[in-house]
Amino acid sequence: MKIIMLGAPGAGKGTQAKKLAEKYAIPHISTGDIFRANIKNGTALGMKAKSYMAQGQLVPDDVTIGMLLNRISEADCANGYVLDGFPRTIPQADSLTSALLERGGQIDYAVNVDVPDERIVARMAGRRACPECSTIYHIEFNPPQQEGLCDACKQSLVLRDDDKPDTVGKRLKVYHNQTQPLIEYYRNENILVTVDGTKNMNEVFADITKVLEA
Ligand code: AP5
């Protein structure tokens, strides 16, 4: 199964993508996580991505598209994947559609996790992430067992630089201008599934899987 996650920054795409990847035993591919790993390791790709991400802007398509298409060509993607954070622009969506058509495939579902902007800022302020394994927590809605430490690898959890309120505002603007049109794009392809992302995490997951397994 090939799934795309759509939704505003902080809507819960990563949280749901991880659960879907576990349930269907397919890789969870987050372009944000790939960029953050490259920044941490000081690679040339990380250097390019860093300033855009810090300002809440999108990393240019010419960097992002090739990186993602290479990733989905790897052997572990043979049975599908969950894409979290890609596509984010119409050119990214077109490139993905064409690349899959060439391989005789297509995306099965585009899952839109719908959360209004006013709920997003609070979610972002409470998010904590593990810099080692990328596990996501929330200080109120999904706290770690031990405050400030990742359950899995015991690393100290961090607030992402781009989760500060000013940058969140910029990311929301970029989302509405450049990414939200993809909802219509995938509605026209008849593969759009919209779920209410303001419910609790388990309810959102149940709503998604109900449609995927109908
Ligand atoms: P990326 O890492 O993809 O960030 P994003 O899309 O802005 O999404 P987030 O990771 O912020 O949020 P999410 O929707 O995954 O929510 P989460 O599950 O964490 O991208 C970062 C940057 O990289 C971009 O700004 C851009 O610069 C660059 N980039 C990445 N991809 C790109 C691309 N394709 N093209 C160009 N540039 C690209 O949840 C948020 C919080 O809420 C968590 O704390 C979670 O625990 C909590 N939560 C989740 N669900 C619920 C719920 N139902 N109820 C209560 N709390 C919840």
Tell me the layout of helices and strands:
Blueprint lengths: L1 E5 L6 H12 L3 E3 H10 L3 H11 L6 H11 L9 E4 L5 H13 L6 E6 L2 H10 E3 L6 E3 L26 H15 L1 H8 L3 E5 L4 H12 L2
Parallel strand pairs: 1-3, 1-4, 2-3, 4-7
Antiparallel strand pairs: 5-6
The site of BIS(adenosine)-5'-pentaphosphate (AP5) has 37 residues, from helix 1, helix 2, helix 3, helix 6 and strand 6.
Entry keywords:
two-stranded antiparallel ribbon; globular; 214 residues; single chain; Rossmann fold; alpha/beta; 7 strands; binds BIS(adenosine)-5'-pentaphosphate
Q: In a few lines, what is going on in this structure?
A:
With 214 residues, the protein is an alpha/beta fold.
What does this structure look like?
This protein has helices at 13-24, 31-40, 44-54, 61-71, 90-102, 117-126, 165-179, 181-188, 201-212, and strands at 2-6, 28-30, 81-84, 109-114, 127-129, 136-138, 192-196. The chain is of the alpha/beta class and 214 residues long. It has a 5-stranded parallel beta sheet with strand order 2-3-1-4-7, with helices on both faces. A two-stranded antiparallel ribbon has the order 5-6. It is globular. The two termini are 14 Å apart. Bound molecules: BIS(adenosine)-5'-pentaphosphate (AP5).
